[in-house]
Amino acid sequence: MTVQLNKFDNATELNAAFAEEIAQKLTQGIEQNGAASLLVSGGNTPKALFSVLKYKDLDWSKVTIALVDDRWVTLDDPASNETMVRQNLLQENAAAAHFIGMKTSHENAFDAVSTVTTNMQNIQMPFDVVILGMGEDGHTASIFPCCAQLDEGLTTKDLILATEPTTAPHQRMTFSKAALLNSKQLYLHLVGENKEAVLNQVRESNDERKAPINAFLNQDKVPMTIMLATSK
Ligand SMILES: O=C1O[C@H](COP(=O)(O)O)[C@@H](O)[C@H](O)[C@H]1O
């Protein structure tokens, strides 16, 4: 399937257009099924998008939001993706959305997989919108290249797995490749010249084991749009 590239001069323009497109897809989902689902990424890139998206006028009470991945840290830790979503997206109009977090009270992420799987089975699938990010090592969600769980993340039919990257801190919880491809629309959200350079490198390598984002760029199941702004 062709990957569509939407390139913007700056993040402000990107986030305005992207928030509008996401709102339209969620509204369409609600019209068609009475409810809609949105999976978002963590890290820093989504914060500015969320600051626009949270004001969109749609029936957020019919939207379920979850993360594509989280770091296995407590909610008071600045590395928590859940806390970032609570502070930046689940505010204003979007405060009415239903959020399902990944972090449980289990000390070890690997012990929490079945609980998180059960919780996530409550989300309407296929997901209406999935927004992926990409790390500078080509990881996406928490499917990392340098990780004992790389093959599992790329091949399991399970919804959820725990991972422990060797090149980044914290155990993680993540949706699998198969789960993320059970969606109506995938986006890859990238801001900055570095991310553009990494994107060009990973597309050249064309190897999902070296750069797991390739698993989503090279597939023929779900439409994929790259939303890229070269400057912040
Ligand atoms: O660790 C993670 O990193 C990626 C990329 O984050 P960014 O700060 O470079 O935007 C993110 O997509 C993922 O959700 C997160 O857990």
TrEMBL record:
Pfam families: Glucosamine_iso
Pathway recorded for this protein: Carbohydrate degradation; pentose phosphate pathway; D-ribulose 5-phosphate from D-glucose 6-phosphate (oxidative stage): step 2/3
Entry GO MF terms: 6-phosphogluconolactonase activity
Top-rank taxon, per record: Bacteria
Record's keyword terms, sorted: Hydrolase
Classification via InterPro entries: 6-phosphogluconolactonase_DevB, 6PGL, Glc/Gal-6P_isomerase, NagB/RpiA_transferase-like
Catalysis: reaction(s): 6-phospho-D-glucono-1,5-lactone + H2O = 6-phospho-D-gluconate + H(+)
CDD domains cross-referenced by the UniProt entry: 6PGL
GO terms (BP aspect): carbohydrate metabolic process; pentose-phosphate shunt
Ranges for domain Glucosamine/galactosamine-6-phosphate isomerase: 10-218
Gene3D superfamilies linked to this entry: 3.40.50.1360
EC number: 3.1.1.31
Stored NCBIfam families: pgl
Family as reported in the entry's similarity comment: Belongs to the glucosamine/galactosamine-6-phosphate isomerase family. 6-phosphogluconolactonase subfamily.
PANTHER family: 6-PHOSPHOGLUCONOLACTONASE
Function: Hydrolysis of 6-phosphogluconolactone to 6-phosphogluconate.
Protein name from the UniProt record: 6-phosphogluconolactonase
Organism encoding this protein: Psychrosphaera ytuae
